[in-house]
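Hi R.,

Here's the chain you asked about this morning:
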Amino acid sequence: MMAGEDAEAMIGEYLGQHEEFPLAVMHAYVDSMKFTGLKFDAAIREFLKGFRLPGEAQKIDRIMEKFAER
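And here is the predicted structure, written out as tokens:
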């Protein structure tokens, strides 16, 4: 894994945490994104380009649930 991939994986792990502050960071991150006018595939690509989804299903669920709210 390259340094950029390591960073993207670490960001995904952090955003998927259930603790109060990382959860607030993830919500702020997702809420700051603009998906207006994008088709679903373009929106999900835009959403996922800054981090890599974590391996744990519960973390993925938290992140994707917030994306779905948008």
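One quick note: The CA atoms of residues 41 and 66 lie 16 Å apart.

Cheers,
M.
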